[in-house]
Amino acid sequence: MVVQACTTTNANTVDIVVVEAFGRSLTLDTISARIPDNLNYDDSTMLADRIVNSWIREQVLLSQAEKSLNEEDSKFQRQIQTYRNALLISEYESRFVNSRLNRDVTDAEVEEFHANNPELFKLPEHVIQAVFFHLPEEEVELDSAKHWLQEADSITMPLLEKWCIEHSATYHVDTEYWWYLSDLLDQVPLQIYRLEDQLKRRKVTEFSSEGHTYMLKILDHRLKDFPSPLAIARERIEEIIVQDRRRELLDNLRDDLVKEAWSLGLISRDSIPL
């Protein structure tokens, strides 16, 4: 680096000062902390130079800003103080919450929230539980696969999955998964003519399209604008519950600190003159 280092000493440490500007200094430790350990010498040197040059530009601009802005401008000073206060409070609250927040949400909590707040989870479109497979049209015996698809239980789904792998079929055999209708139709190009009747059908639907044979079994469905199944809403519910806990922690913290300050005589107030 094209910089000259000097050292300053205090009672506890010896910091290597790489560059000074306007009464401020940038130390070697500060630069080193910003350089990844896995960089080679040349890359480390280039990055160090960029860090130093960036710091110098920042100090020049900061000095100019401090000279140009009127230090007596009360509005500007209030803005600086407001920003500083917000930054300090935000960092303190974040550390407080992160050290205490319980992020584990039980199934019972999720189920209770879902049951008590159905209006929060209305579906934007129809959703479907379904299993299916498709493969190129060819001379393949499909009777067993069709039977397993029709049964769609814990015994037949592993058998169907094995069959699909052996025949290089594209398949989905997770009976708990909910598809949005538009996503399912991307996988299975089913012709829609009487949608609600088709969604209620619980027998295997078989059809051909663009040289492929498709088989689909609908297991369950929910209609648009109705409350969503729990499985779809679970992730959002967990986030809501955790955020509610976070708000409660912060509300209790703020209330407790204010009560403590009053009890210690650190706050005094008078009536507001009208």
Topology:
Elements: E1 6-9, E2 14-21, E3 24-27, H1 28-33, H2 41-68, H3 74-98, H4 107-116, E4 127-136, H5 143-151, H6 156-166, E5 170-172, E6 178-180, H7 181-187, H8 195-200, E7 205-209, E8 212-222, H9 230-263
Antiparallel strand pairs: 1-2, 2-3, 4-5, 4-6, 4-8, 7-8
The oligomeric state is: single chain
Give the total of beta strands: 8
- Cα-to-Cα separation, first versus last residue: 65 Å
Fraction of residues in H or I helices: 40-55%
Please summarize the sheet with the most strands: 5 strands, antiparallel
Structural class: alpha+beta
Question: Secondary-structure element sequence?
Answer: EEEHHHHEHHEEHHEEH
Overall form: elongated
> Could you tell me the strand content as a percent range?
15-25%
Count of helical regions: 9
Task: List segments where confidence is low: pLDDT < 50 over at least 5 consecutive residues.
Answer: 1-14
If you average the pLDDT, what whole number results?
89
Task: Give an overview of the whole structure.
With 274 residues, the protein is of the alpha+beta class. Among the domains are: 69 residues, no CATH class; 111 residues. 50% of the residues lie in helices and 18% in strands. The protein contains nine helices and eight strands. The strands form two sheets. Strands 4, 5, 6, 7 and 8 form a five-stranded antiparallel sheet that branches. A three-stranded antiparallel sheet has the order 1-2-3. A hairpin with a 2-residue loop joins strand 7 and strand 8. Helix 4 packs across helix 9. The protein is elongated, with a radius of gyration of 33 Å. The two termini are 65 Å apart. 12% of the residues are buried. The N terminus is likely disordered.
